[in-house]
Write a structure and sequence with these properties.
Shape: globular
Bound molecules: (3R)-3-hydroxy-3-methyl-5-(phosphonooxy)pentanoic acid
Helix content: 40-55%
Order of helices and strands: EEEEHEHHHEEEHHHHEEHE
Number of strands: 11
Largest sheet: 7 strands, mixed
Mean pLDDT: 95
Distance between the termini: 20 Å
Structural class: alpha+beta
Low-confidence stretches: none
Strand content: 15-25%
Length: about 300
């Protein structure tokens, strides 16, 4: 079995597309892939529990067509004619800001190597998965792919080596899905339009975001959870200023804060998807989880340890 992690962005989404830093935490959940050699005409992929099958045949489903393109790109990286069947189990919601397409890409690329008895280093998996991600998102920063590949907690900056962050205390986050999926490509394009229309305003928002990310790193390393929570809530205000929140997400964030979260924000592309709330005790975690369930939301538990394996 091979694996690609999901992730949540603690601070800095969208700015990271434009060269600013972001702080991210890989989640235990992700994409698990098993591969076996096949004698068929094409390499095929089945994704549970979505019950999506990707083969070489014609399809009217745009999501399957994108997956077909991505799978062709991935198999086209090999000079041989080896066919395979890949069984993937996705333990992340799609279109929810938890990096499902990057997790899937990393798992598929590792599985295609595994079936050939190849071991490739992570840096190469990361580069290959960026090409996969471009099919879905056009202009990915690479943060999802880096976290899917390496896991752990990290500060990411486009085109730079991943900087590991070692939290001084365990991190526990409640991630909750608003029920509306979001399109990362559309959200990224909307921010690009806002930046082109008013570079001074959006540049200032990105400056503020960068300061929050750098302060967030220090807070993680110092175990200053209340400070980290405050920075997350401040980041949410910047995302609201870019029209990336929704009434449903704002209601969830208000409910999480009322239930005792230290901070809460949209995570990932926004315009739908998930919010994350930072908690600092079992009781706080349970209360925030219950508040989300009362709103009828699906909840995902995100933890990061104090060691380098995240
Ligand atoms: O919504 P997701 O999981 O695809 O996260 C996107 C994060 C962005 O910063 C909005 C885009 C990117 O490529 O970094």
């Amino acid at each position: 079995m091979v694996f690609g992690h999901g992730k949540v962005i603690l601070l800095g989404e969208h700015g990271v597309v434009h060269g600013r830093p972001a702080l991210a935490i890989a989640v235990e959940r992700g994409a698990e892939a098993h591969a076996r050699r096949s004698e068929g005409d094409a390499t095929t992929l089945h994704i549970a529990p979505w019950d999506v099958t990707v083969d070489d045949g014609p399809t009217d489903d745009p999501a399957v067509a994108l997956l077909q393109r991505a799978l062709r790109l991935a198999t086209g990286l090999y000079a041989d004619e080896q066919r395979a069947h890949l069984e993937v189990t996705m333990r992340l919601p799609a279109g929810a800001g938890m990096g499902s397409s990057a997790a899937l890409g990393v798992a598929v690329l590792r599985a295609l190597d595994e079936v050939r008895d190849l071991t490739r280093d992570d840096a190469e998996i990361y580069e290959r998965s960026l090409a996969w991600e471009r099919i879905f998102h056009g202009n990915p920063s690479g943060v999802d792919n880096a976290m899917a590949t390496w896991g752990g907690v990290a500060l990411f900056r486009r085109g730079r080596p991943l900087e590991r962050v070692l939290p001084a205390t365990p991190i526990r986050i409640v991630a909750a899905f608003s029920g509306a999926s979001s399109s990362t490509a559309e959200a990224v394009a909307s921010v690009a339009r806002q930046l082109a229309g008013d570079p001074a305003r959006v540049g200032r928002l990105f400056d503020d975001m960068e300061a929050l990310v750098l302060a967030g790193r220090r807070a993680l390393e110092a175990g200053a959870l209340s400070e980290l929570g405050r920075l997350m809530t401040a980041n949410h205000a910047l995302l609201q200023a870019l029209s990336l929140s929704t009434p449903a997400l704002d209601d969830m964030i208000a409910a999480a804060m009322a239930a005792g979260a230290l901070g809460a924000k949209v995570t990932g592309a926004g315009g739908g998807g998930c919010m994350i709330a930072l908690t600092d005790s079992d009781l706080g975690h349970t209360r925030v989880t219950e508040a989300m369930r009362t709103l009828g939301r699906d909840v995902y538990d995100v933890r990061a340890g104090t060691d380098r394996s995240g």
